[in-house]
């Protein structure tokens, strides 16, 4: 049934979840057993984007404009490298000199960007021999200055994006002050491999949270216009990032606790025993680093949306369309954050750097699921497994028909 509803896509729990939420967004009420049969209409025959002439930029993976100074590079990295060499710039890294350079994060650390330019083979000698005039270099600097924006005017279009994202974030993620917090006793006050009681509660809450993340994604401007396969790819890739962002927003530093969507508040030890295991300390460290940023609902929602709509995810059918959706989100976060706190000009790049940290933690999450599967009795809840692991494409549809993949959607 799901295959007829969504074309040739596999009826994975996440696909069903996306279809169900699309149905509810149109206020339609079909019969129970046909919940995801007729309500998604996607253009599955959309023509793919034209093949790229060059390999992606060796430095940031953006679209390459050709070979510059010995390697395939985009215009941005070409210009950055040329200016750095010509002006003999000396940069410093505010972290550990291991910043991951991508299209999104390339402007956050000039030291690591230049280091990567050299590491992939860009030639300083080629720059010195370049006969590009100073006039042309000055013109490119002016273009770059316009791109990063010295004036931060919130256009009506960007203002509408901020409003939509903020509302979607609030509707799917109530703030800590609105929750009636409660605690629970666990079988151990020490770290153990797994507390099955806490795991059962955590897995139930996590499934609900994943559904809320899908609801949020469907309200990100332009997301539902993407190819259905790309929607699923983006949700699979970013869901854990977004879940971590959300739980860390409910971190209480003085108590070292985190609060879940129903108000359940757990200590660091309890979260470890609930299934986080070795992920616990990195997540709590990340939460502590987010506190000084003091991000509001609009900024948190925009950062989540930027994590979601990322054109560098693997296996996207139409990455160029994803990149187009991300650009106004980046611009909205940059302008909104700088207008909200004019004295905190570094908040925007620091927020983007957190995406790199999130991806690092998510990679560890994929490793954690391997050991977790051996520790829990029975099967892992389908939505959680799909977020942390690749679900086989030939999964039996019987798992969907008996409701195991949908029990928390009601």
Tags for this model:
410 residues, mainly alpha, Erythroid Transcription Factor GATA-1, Chain A, Retinoid X Receptor, 3 domains, three-stranded antiparallel beta sheet, two-stranded antiparallel sheet, 5 strands, 52% helix, disordered N terminus, disordered C terminus, NR_LBD_RAR, receptor, zinc ion binding, nuclear receptor activity, Retinoic acid receptor beta
Q: Can you put this structure into words, describing what you see?
A:
The structure is a single chain. By secondary structure, the protein is mainly alpha-helical. The protein has three domains: 33 residues, no CATH class; 83 residues, Erythroid Transcription Factor GATA-1, Chain A, CATH 3.30.50.10; 234 residues, Retinoid X Receptor, CATH 1.10.565. Helix content is 52%, strand content 3%. It contains 16 helices and five strands. The strands form two sheets. Strands 3-4-5 form a three-stranded antiparallel sheet. Strands 1-2 form a two-stranded antiparallel ribbon. Strand 3 and strand 4 form a beta hairpin. Helix 2 packs across helix 8. The longest helix is centred in the last third of the chain and has 29 residues.
In short:
This protein has helices at residues 2-5, 13-25, 75-86, 110-119, 124-128, 134-148, 156-172, 196-218, 228-249, 268-276, 280-290, 297-308, 319-340, 347-375, 382-388, 398-401, and strands at residues 66-68, 71-73, 251-252, 257-259, 265-267. The protein is mainly alpha-helical and 410 residues long.
């Amino acid at each position: 049934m799901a295959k007829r509803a969504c074309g040739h896509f596999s009826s994975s729990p996440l696909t069903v979840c996306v279809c169900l939420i699309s149905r509810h967004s149109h206020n339609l009420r079909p019969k129970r057993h046909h919940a995801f049969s007729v309500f998604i209409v996607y253009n599955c025959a959309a023509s793919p984007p034209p093949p790229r002439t060059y390999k992606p930029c060796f430095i940031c993976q953006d679209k390459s404009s050709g070979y510059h100074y010995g390697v395939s590079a985009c215009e941005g990295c070409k210009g950055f490298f040329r200016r750095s060499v010509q002006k003999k710039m000396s940069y410093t890294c505010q972290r550990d000199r291991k910043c991951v350079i991508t299209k999104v994060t390339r402007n956050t650390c000039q030291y690591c960007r230049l280091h990567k330019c050299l590491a992939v083979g860009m030639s300083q000698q080629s720059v010195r021999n370049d006969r590009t005039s100073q006039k042309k270099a000055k013109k490119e600097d002016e273009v770059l200055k316009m791109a990063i924006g010295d004036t931060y005017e919130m256009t009506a279009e960007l203002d509408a994006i901020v409003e939509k994202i903020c509302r979607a974030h609030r509707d799917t993620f109530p703030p800590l002050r609105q929750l009636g917090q409660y605690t629970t006793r666990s079988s151990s006050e020490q770290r153990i491999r797994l507390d099955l009681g806490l795991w059962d509660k955590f897995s139930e809450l996590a499934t609900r949270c994943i559904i809320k993340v899908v609801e949020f994604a469907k309200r990100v401007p332009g997301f539902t216009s993407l190819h259905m396969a790309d929607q699923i790819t983006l949700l699979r890739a970013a869901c854990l990032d977004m879940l971590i962002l959300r739980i860390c927003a409910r971190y209480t530093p003085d108590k070292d606790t985190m609060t879940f969507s129903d108000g359940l508040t757990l200590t660091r030890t309890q979260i470890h025993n609930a299934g986080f295991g070795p992920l616990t300390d990195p997540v709590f460290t990340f939460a502590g680093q987010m506190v000084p940023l003091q991000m509001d609902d609009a900024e948190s929602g925009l950062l989540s949306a930027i994590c979601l709509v990322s054109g560098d995810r693997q296996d996207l059918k139409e990455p160029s369309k994803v990149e187009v959706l991300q650009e106004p989100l980046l611009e909205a976060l940059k302008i909104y954050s700088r207008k909200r706190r004019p004295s905190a000009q570094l908040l925007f790049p620091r927020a983007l750097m957190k995406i790199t940290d999130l991806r690092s933690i998510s990679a560890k999450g994929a490793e954690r699921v391997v050991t977790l599967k051996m520790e829990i009795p029975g099967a892992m809840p389908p939505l959680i497994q799909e977020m942390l692991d690749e679900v086989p494409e030939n999964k039996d549809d019987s798992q969907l028909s008996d409701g195991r993949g949908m029990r928390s959607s009601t």
